[in-house]
User: What shape does this take?
Amino acid sequence: MSHKESFLQYLQIEKRYSLHTVRSYLNDLDQFYLFLLSLGLPEDPVAVTSHDIRAWIVSMLDKNYSTTSIHRKISCLRVFYRYLRKEGIIKNDPLEKVVLPKRKKSLPVFIDEESLTNLLDNYSFGDGFAGIRNRTIIELLYMTGMRRSELIGLRDNDLDLSEGSLKVTGKRNKQRIIPLVQPFVKRLEEYIMVRNDNVVTEKNGWFFITDKGNKLYDKYVYNTVNSYLSMVTTIEKKSPHILRHTFATHMLNRGADLNSIKELLGHANLSATQIYTHNTFEKLKKVYKQAHPRA
Assistant: This one.
C-alpha cells in the first residue's frame, strides 16, 4: 500500500472524515503528484522539498487559482505530512518554512429576507410530491442552516416532530439538535404524508427520496436550489450553501447570539462563525449612512 493510500485510509477510518472530504484530499494529492511528474520528479513524498512545494504554489498562481483554493490544497499537504511524521516515515516537514500568499477576505454571499419570503410564501411549487419535496428542501436548508450533505443524510428517525426537533449528523459524525418552529413542523408532516402516499420507499429510512424511492443525491439538491433561487435573486452563486449563509446572516441581523448560531451551524470553533458578523456590520454601516443626518 502506498503512502497516499494508507493516508486516505487513515482519514476515513481513524479520523472518520466523510467520503466527500476524502475524495477532496485525493484530488489535491493527485494534482500535486502530477505537478511533481511534470518537473521530472518521482512520486515520492519523502523526497519532496520545500522548494518543490513553493514551485507548486507559484504554478497555481500562474494559472490564476484563487488564494482560497491554494490555501485549501496546501492545507491538504500539511495534514498529509503530519501523518507521515506521525508514522515515522519522514523526520522533517517540508511545509514548515513555506509561506502562503495572503488570502483575501470575502464576505459570505446571502439572499435578502424579502426575496426568500417571496419565494416561500408566494410561489406555487405545485401540489404533487416533487413540488412539495422541492419546497421542503429549500425551506429546511433555510430554517436550519444545515449543509447539503447533512440534508441528504437525514433519516426519518432523526426527526422528532412531537418535540419539534431535528438531529443532524455533521462533519466527523458530530451530532447536534436543531429546534423546529410549529408552522414548519406541519409542513414536514405534510411532506411525509404525501411522500408515503406517492412513493414506495426503501427500508433504509431516508427522509428525502427521489421519485423512484431512492436516496436523494448532491446534484439534485444543487439543481433544485439553483433553479428556484434564480427566480428571486441575481447573485451569481445560487448553491445550497448560500442558504446556510443566509440562515446565519438573518439570525444575526435579528439579534441572535453568536454562540447559539455556532451550535446551530455545527461549527467546531467560534472563529468560523464570526465571519457572519462582517455582513451584519456592513448592513449597520449602510443603515447609518442612510439614516444619520451627518453621515
User: Anything to note?
Assistant: The chain has a mean pLDDT of 89. The CA atoms of residues 48 and 113 lie 50 Å apart. The beta strands are 159-160, 165-169, 175-179. The chain has two domains: 3-86, 113-290.
